[in-house]
Amino acid sequence: MAWILKCCGDYFRLCFFACAILLGLQVPNFMVQYEQRVDAQLIEAKSALSGFAFTANRYFEGDLNKLIAHYRASDDVVFQQDANSIEGIVERVAYLEQESNALNVSSILKGLHIVQRASTDLFAETLAAFAFNAPLSINGLLWGLSLAVFLMLLLDGSTRLCKSAIKRRGGHTHNATSGRS
């Protein structure tokens, strides 16, 4: 009976390891899809800003802030409201450029950035549209094996801690009625 339990435990560990590898293989693919989403939205935001940038180049020495100030100073309410829209587009372009630059690093730093500092909106959109696949690239295999080893160490470490705690408790149990006569 003990042999069967040991075999089941070993098979569970193997399955867990295989699943962790498959999960790790998804990491580079997710990073690529996130980066593509950032780049696509940056292109779209720059396109939306291009007409205003042309006007700023023509009349305000290329300074979009002067164009925004001009719109805000206008007596026309429509221009005043458009100033907020232009400012929003300028801020969006700046943010997406910053995000794009943050992703132009090594795979490990890119992964850390996405986990710690990614745009929650872009992360959620990427996750919702994520296409799972198993790319057999060196980068994918490294991520897969690294994640699998890390998760196995966590699993084995927590199992050992639990067993150790159970052994300590088992050795120190006392009978509540033993002190009575």
Detailed description of the structure:
Helices cover 82% and strands 0% of the residues. With 181 residues, it is an all-alpha fold. Helix 1 (2-59) packs across helix 3 and helix 1 (2-59) packs across helix 5. It has a domain at 44-129. The longest helix is centred in the N-terminal third of the chain and has 58 residues, at 2-59. It has six helices and no strands. The protein is elongated. 14% of the residues are buried. The mean pLDDT is 88.
Note the main attributes of this structure:
181 residues, mainly alpha
Spell out the blueprint of helices and strands.
Blueprint: H1 2-59, H2 64-73, H3 77-102, H4 107-117, H5 120-128, H6 138-171
Helix pairs in contact: 1-3, 1-4, 1-5, 1-6, 2-3
| H/E topology pattern | HHHHHH
Instruction: Tally the helices.
Output: 6
Mean pLDDT: 88
Structural class of the secondary elements? mainly alpha
Largest sheet: none
| Strand coverage percent | under 5%
Count of beta strands: 0
Give the radius of gyration: 28 Å
What is the global morphology?
Answer: elongated
| Relative helix content | over 70%
Oligomer: single chain
Distance linking N and C termini: 41 Å
Instruction: Name the poorly predicted regions.
Output: none
Short description:
This protein has 181 residues and is mainly alpha-helical.
